[in-house]
Write a structure and sequence with these properties.
9 helices, mainly alpha
Length: about 200
Amino acid sequence: MAETRIKDPHRHTLPEDTQGLLSGTLLVALSVSLLHGAGLFTGQIAGLSLVLSYVTGWSFGAIFFTLNLPFYWLAFRRMGKRFTVKTVLAVALLSSFTELFPHLLSFATLHPGAAGVLAGVTAGAGLLALFRHGASLGGVGIVALYLQDRTGFKAGRTQILFDCGVFLFAFFVLPLDKVLWSLLGAMVLNVIILINHRRDRYIAT
């Protein structure tokens, strides 16, 4: 009798992963649009990409996609093929959505405080969706998830350390008020990740 493969009830199906990646990247793309509309930024590779896009005039999507390339080898070696493939897809989706969004929406009125807080909330929700489906947005997220899984060091704490470097750089190249409003949004984002991202609360991958 042929052996019957038993499906793991804790593993996400392809349709579940698809909607998770699409929903997560769309939420983060909305966050990037809010930040860009107010001239703000955030932490992690996305934040560094925004700052560089302001300074150079280059496309956020192109910078973000390029900066993530060196991290895929670590993802493959340390997190596995499944995680790496999902992360590459998530990065590509976010880069594409952020190129598309300026043609679909704009903000006539956007207070920087509101932009920072809303961007933090939408990015937090998007990243949690991606984490839940075994993906990240590359860069620092890969390192943060690896450290959390291996050592228990919270992913949010790793991100905060990197954020300090991004904000130090931005302090010298952007207006002070933009840096301060951006700090508010980054704090909201990191608090959401720090409180909610715990693998013992969900085990599906």
